[in-house]
Amino acid sequence: MQGENFINSEREIKVSFGYQCNSPRGIPCSAANGHEIWSGSEMPRTGSFSCLSGAALSANATLANTNICNGVIGGEILPSLDSPKSFRRVPSSPSLPRLDILSSSLQSSISNLSCSSPSPLDSPETDSFLLKPMSAPSRTDSFLNAMEVQMAGGAAGEDRVQAVCSEENGWLFCAIYDGFNGRDAADFLAGTLYETIIFYFTLLDRESKQNVPTANGCFEYFHDDGLVGNKAKPTSRIDGKNYASAESLMKKTADRKVEVLSDSFRHGVLDSLQRALSQAENDFLYMVEQEMEDRPDLVSIGSCVLVVFLHGNDMYTLNLGDSRAVLATYDNANDMGQTEKLKAIQLTDSHTVDNEVERTRLLHEHPDDSMPVVGGKVKGKLKVTRAFGVGYLKKKKMNDAVMGIIRVHNLISPPYISTEPSLNVHTISRSDHFVIIGSDGLFDFFSNDEAVKLVLYYISSNPYGDPAKFLLEQLVIKAAHSAGFSKEELMNIPAGRRRKYHDDVTVMVIILGTNHRTSKASTCGSWLLGCWFVRGGVGRTVAFGSVFFLVGRLVRHMVAQRGQ
User: What is the reported pTM?
Assistant: First the structure.
């Protein structure tokens, strides 16, 4: 395979990490470049993912750390979170009291971070929680149920990536923050959003526990709208005449309540994600207001946001901007061996002026402005219609703080950039193979279908390889060809100047593990022994991985023979 030297080069690959589920302890697992790959524990896997790989390539020249929030973000928080070359185990609530910092922010007591006044919250119950000091969650504090987690992530140019996993509890948090005009907003998100989400998840858990179970053990916990992932589910009426006995009626009623409770929980998770993002936005813009006199450029800095959260068999997505989550799934679960049946489904919306729905919404929200879109950009400044930060397109006060070409001279009816995310939940099935999560830099060169075909091609022939890094390699080859360079010539162009040829690119590939495939397209060596995933050069294999693969095939053959 071409690009071996590129794969081994660590100069521009700023982030590269991998995670494999359910690997027996005592067997070493390391990358070809010497970096450690996290292997899961002996505990049985309860989630729906098998492997994760992540990689990020820089193109922009960006300061490593800025001094936002009195230096707390760059000087204390991010160094305790970043692990760009491998997963590492950390407490679910790190030693730095970030939860206390956030709760202080929520209560307008901002002695540690000069970040923001609270956003209006919905209910007295929530307010009562906010009055209590926040502390590290215990196993009983949240449905996430983790004392420790595995974490990886880092920065590449203006992009930031994070992955947090609790394999034994069946959940995975992945986020890409695609910054623009600077990395301050992406840094802020990387330093605070995960903790804010955990805080709101804890509130969700406490609120759900307040619902008292009925005599049959089911919670009376209903939502009138029944909305999950922006899709309405029709309500059904239970009629006792349709059942043969009172026992049957009680069972049907209990099943219905369990179903509604499950939908209500999903709705609560989506609501928690949205509330956390809103809180982070308020915090960031408050910080910008405090510091824009010394740093007026902060008003133009923003970030796209993509969060993918797997919990059990549910995959939640939240996005602002033009990053994407693309699901690779089979049309026919009974014919999964045929690779041509694999299709790409985009799980996220593209919030750009090129999206006719977004463009129409923008024009509708600004009837008094004849030019909300200028030169294919919002007010001539941004192609994305929804984003985190970028305060000068949201508040007149921030726009007035800047001069020259940055300032918008006809800011008639702000805000022009929305912070309303697109939310969705997808129930993972046996037909689902993998998910590609990427910043827009990836999709500047590959369509959804092309990215899926590349990953499928790679994992079919390299079941122990790194699909995220492979996608970056193919992107560089394509970008170099488009510019008339060799790959080496393109990579020798300094960051900053190379932005002319490609953007910062961040990619994660999640191999889903509920589909116990036996086809050559599978990345799982054995459905009993889990998924072996070794990060390294293209074509490399590991002897013990091959042994487990053969054992897995033998076990499946024996099971098949016994069933005949």
Answer: 0.76
